[in-house]
Amino acid sequence: MLDERLSLAYGLYPACRLAADIGTDHAHLPAALLQRGRCQHMVLTDRSPSALDNARREMVRRRLLDRVTLCLGEGLSPLSGPCEAISVTGMGGRTIREILLSGRQKLQGATLILSAHTDWPLIRAALMDIGYHADREEPCFAAGRFYLVIRALPGAVSLSAQELRLGTCLFESASPCLIPFLARRRDILAHELKGLKSAEVPDTALMEQVLADMDSYTRKINMIGGKAHDSQADL
């Protein structure tokens, strides 16, 4: 059984013959991808021998061991050839950024499925650096916290500083979690602004940036809420 976060990652995965799951640990996502026929074969990697043992046991339990290749190693380094899709989930944004930047030669045009609970601007910036762009950003709420699942495709797209901070295709999401997610991000900024105002020497430029981002979230929330209301009225 996949939780909300992994179910979302599963839904963004393309059908493919060969995919890789980086930092696989419990291997629940690749097991579902294989059992349901979304992927035919998967490379499962982890830097931890015990985590890779967890994955092996899960594959044995589900009778999928003959459809996986288990590799011990850091990040994308264990990949020996091109994959059609690569997932990196359950890590912080800073770690995912390092994996993408250090292993960019291993990507070879693969669709990327990335899930982090922190530092999403770092992931967006890393995607720009490696010649990729996010074509889907989907929020979800799982285990008491918000996550963002990003699908990225080859082709660099230049983003402004604010787009790196807030996202772009995120606001096109049809997820019921979108407005709560945006409201939570705005609340975090409001708390940050309070701290900036109480500083001995306030950073005026940063305060203006935070206010602009809060205003952008508010406008997006109102716009999305208005569209939802109009859609209900048309029924």
Summarize the structure.
The chain has 8 helices and 7 strands.
What distinguishing features does this structure have?
235 residues; alpha/beta; Rossmann fold; 2 domains; seven-stranded mixed beta sheet; 8 helices; 46% helix; elongated
Molecular structure report:
There is one protein chain. This protein has helices spanning 4-12, 28-35, 49-61, 93-102, 120-129, 161-166, 178-197, 204-234, and strands at 16-22, 39-46, 68-72, 85-91, 111-116, 132-142, 145-154. The longest helix has 31 residues, at 204-234. The chain folds into 2 domains: 4-158, Vaccinia Virus protein VP39 (Rossmann fold); 178-234. Helix 4 packs parallel to helix 5 and helix 7 runs antiparallel to helix 8. Helix content is 46%, strand content 23%. It has a 7-stranded mixed β-sheet with strand order 3-2-1-4-5-7-6, with helices on both faces. It is elongated. The mean pLDDT is 94. The protein has 235 residues and is an alpha/beta fold. The chain is built from 8 helices and 7 strands; from the N terminus they run αβαβαββαβαββααα.
